[in-house]
Amino acid sequence: MIIAHRGISFDLPENSLPAFNASWDAGVDGIEGDFHLTKDGFIVCIHDDNTSRVSNKNLIIRNSTLQELKELNLECKSKNHLNIKIPTLAEVLKTVPSEKKIFIEIKCGAEIITTLVKELSQSEVNPNDVVIISFDRQVIKELKEITSEYKALLLYSYEDGREVSSLITEMLDINADGLGTDNELSKVFVERVITSELEYHSWTIDNADTANKLINWGSHSITTNDPELLMQQFF
Predict the structure, then answer these.
(1) Less packed terminus of the chain by CB within 10 Å, N or C?
(2) How many domains in the chain?
(3) Per-residue pLDDT averaged across 20-37, rounded?
């Protein structure tokens, strides 16, 4: 599967509805977005814990209400797309076509889980098409304690140098369905995860040769900033 990292955002704001819609128009298998919980209990789609990088005003997400965040405009390279707002999870879910995937990266802590599960259950997206991902093991653990309806992946940066056996033990302990990582070097690493009956997913891969190698090793998905390039290469 080819997954659009924060949507196709060369000329559009990352994690925005136009970026996600451009991804669907390009024919991707899924999108990946980043999510935080606001002060008043809404889930919004933004990577950082503040707005300084994506708008002209700095608000801390956890200390701001949805209304305050919606008053901001996301900075955009294209003058044809102005007044783009930070979307809510509910708004992003409405863009997801039938039988397409959404990878939901939780960027805050496990305090988001109850609201997340409620919003997902109220959406029209098939639970089989939802993948929850996080670097925080507690997020995955608490999600799986509440429901097994949604697939969940533990995220891991390969440069951290942990033994794959340790990661596998951790994933099994928290009932994760698999691993998402930036490993580009070790086929053995991939094989160990897959032979443990866990899924293996790759991020963020923008090189076609590297993507092809990982696919041949058995990666279930490739998250990329340039999905159109990879789709031209493989399809």
Answers:
(1) C
(2) 1
(3) 98
